[in-house]
């Protein structure tokens, strides 16, 4: 009886040992995609590259699927490969197009959404391996922007004199700013800062004009840079334009 039990145990151990070998194993070893902080645009086509490692596989056809991780409809993209034994394989790039709908943002600015996906390896109707990944998608409708529309100054051939005060107006437009955002406008030349102004706290979309007085200290062509930058309340934004004033001796 003891000998019979030993034979049964050995038989069970034998089958436990060989089943994994017979069934084989597949895992995703590499996954190449545009990772954070890189962002994508709606309608953009993106190549996803998946590499696998397989061991002790019987002759099998494996297929690559790329699927929504959050909700149906699931979609497939990729190619198939026939494998046996052990080895590695890099699927050709599977191209997907960024849709107009994706998951609700989580911890990102409103204009950036998370698109949750999975790379899956299938053998017929059996899922063998999977790996989740996330793409960041920009929604241009909510993207914050800020720019210099135009600058009012003494345009050549008109001139100003050395030591003469001159008014410069920097007209700006902004959109989708977070609540409490402040914008700073500065005027600089080669010597450094000439003037600066900071707006009150802004939000949403609108326009703002910054008026600044500057005064030249030497004659000639006066090259000036007008710069905008957010100083609080929003992601870093900025814009810059250059202009020229002709200065004559007094």
Mind explaining what this structure looks like?
The structure is a single chain. This protein has one helix spanning 2-23, and strands at 25-32, 39-41, 45-68, 80-90, 94-97, 112-123, 126-138, 145-152, 159-161, 166-189, 192-198, 202-214, 220-232, 238-248. It is elongated, with a radius of gyration of 32 Å. Residues 1-22 have low confidence and may be disordered. Helices cover 9% and strands 62% of the residues. The longest helix has 22 residues, at 2-23. Strand 10 and strand 11 form a beta hairpin. Strands 1, 2, 3, 4, 5, 6 and 7 form a seven-stranded mixed sheet that branches. Strands 8, 9, 10, 11, 12, 13 and 14 form a seven-stranded mixed sheet that branches. The chain is mainly beta and 250 residues long. It has two domains: 23-141, Immunoglobulin-like; 144-248, Immunoglobulin-like, CATH 2.60.40.
Short description:
The protein has 1 helix and 14 strands; from the N terminus they run αββββββββββββββ. It has one helix spanning 2-23, and strands spanning 25-32, 39-41, 45-68, 80-90, 94-97, 112-123, 126-138, 145-152, 159-161, 166-189, 192-198, 202-214, 220-232, 238-248. Strands 1, 2, 3, 4, 5, 6 and 7 form a 7-stranded mixed sheet that branches. Strands 8, 9, 10, 11, 12, 13 and 14 form a 7-stranded mixed sheet that branches.
Instruction: Count up the domains.
Output: 2
Strand element count: 14
Stretches where pLDDT falls below 50 for ≥5 residues? 1-22
The largest β sheet comes out as: 7 strands, mixed
> What proportion strand?
over 45%
Quote the distance from N terminus to C terminus: 120 Å
* Mean pLDDT level: 85
Helix content: under 10%
Rg of Cα set: 32 Å
Give the H and E element order.
HEEEEEEEEEEEEEE
Give the CATH topology of the largest domain.
Immunoglobulin-like
Secondary structural class: mainly beta
* CATH C-level of the largest domain: Mainly Beta
Number of helices: 1
CATH architecture of the largest domain: Sandwich
Shape: elongated
The oligomerization state is single chain
């Amino acid at each position: 009886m003891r000998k019979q039990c030993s034979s049964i145990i050995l038989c069970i151990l034998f089958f436990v040992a060989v089943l994994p070998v017979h069934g084989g194993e597949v895992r995703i070893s590499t996954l190449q995609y545009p990772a954070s902080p890189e962002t994508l645009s709606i309608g953009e086509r993106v190549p996803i590259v998946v590499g696998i490692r397989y061991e002790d596989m019987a002759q099998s056809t494996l297929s690559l699927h790329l699927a929504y991780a959050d909700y149906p409809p699931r979609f497939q993209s990729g190619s198939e490969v026939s494998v046996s034994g052990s080895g590695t394989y890099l699927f050709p790039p599977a191209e997907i197009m960024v849709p107009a709908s994706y998951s609700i943002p989580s911890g990102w600015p409103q204009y950036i959404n998370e698109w949750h996906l999975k790379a899956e390896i299938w053998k017929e109707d059996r899922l063998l391996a999977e790996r989740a990944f996330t793409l960041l998608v920009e929604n241009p409708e909510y993207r914050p922007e800020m720019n210099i529309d135009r600058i009012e100054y003494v345009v050549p051939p008109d001139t100003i004199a050395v030591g003469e005060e001159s008014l410069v107006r920097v007209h700006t437009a902004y959109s989708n700013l977070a609540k409490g955002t402040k914008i700073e406008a500065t005027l600089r030349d080669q010597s450094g800062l000439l003037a600066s102004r900071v707006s009150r706290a802004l939000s949403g979309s609108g326009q703002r004009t910054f008026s600044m007085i500057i005064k030249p200290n030497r004659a000639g062509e006066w090259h000036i840079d007008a710069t905008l930058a957010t100083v609080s309340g929003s992601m870093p934004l900025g814009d810059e334009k250059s202009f020229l004033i002709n200065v004559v001796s007094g």
